[in-house]
Amino acid sequence: MTTPVLSKIVDLAVTRLAFGDVRIAYRDSGATAATGVPVVLVHGMGGDGHTWDRFARALVQAGRRVIIPDLRGHGRSSHTDSYRFDEFGADVLKLCDRLELSTVDLVGHSLGGYAVSCVAQERPELVRRLVIEECPLPLQSGAEELRLTRRFPTVPELWHATNSLARHPRAVLAFDRSMTRTALEQFRKPNPEWWDRLSDITARTLVLRGGPGGMVDPAKLELMRAAIADCTVTAFACGHSIHRDRYRDFAAAVHPFLAA
What we know:
Carboxylesterase_BioH, 12 helices, alpha/beta, AB_hydrolase_1, Alpha/beta fold hydrolase, globular, AB_hydrolase_fold, eight-stranded mixed sheet
């Protein structure tokens, strides 16, 4: 009896690659019988690559090679002394290089969305399609800092964190909590370089934003859309985790985009 594709995705052997002192764990469906451009799926903060299992199954069934890393400090990857946002992107880029991928489609949620945007900025010729789901956009200037530092988590954000613990306790327990302070510090600091480099992105780009429970500033999102040469924004009625809470809507938007 043939093993279901879902089980194959879940049970894929985890490989770890060392980049200096950091070991990045990932699962790879393999290039055998795969067609088209490989797809790299990058999770958000506090999760791990298993958040993508359902979507990865559909991609593999469509004949795509799928690579699913755990970001540093998450899942089975190393805990480290440094969690700068640009380092998450650098790890994804190093993984692509080590796997000798000449062209990729990148899909990233939240922190993973920021990571894949950095890859597309740093190596535009590598990225064919870019999907950024509910990525909290960096500050542009110090004028925004006061508003962010006085902002408390919303009820939807707290519900998302609690629900993630209930649904994926393994991922939450593996998460390096020391990252939280570093992440908050970076969210409070302007990142004008990231904004300046958006125009370096040449990939056809799809940005997904949630509704009232989401974490994307609509005004800044419009500036992002205008800065990227080929960028479409699709809105959803749910909160921060679209691929989890509205999977069918997510798949209906992303599958055709990656297939084109």
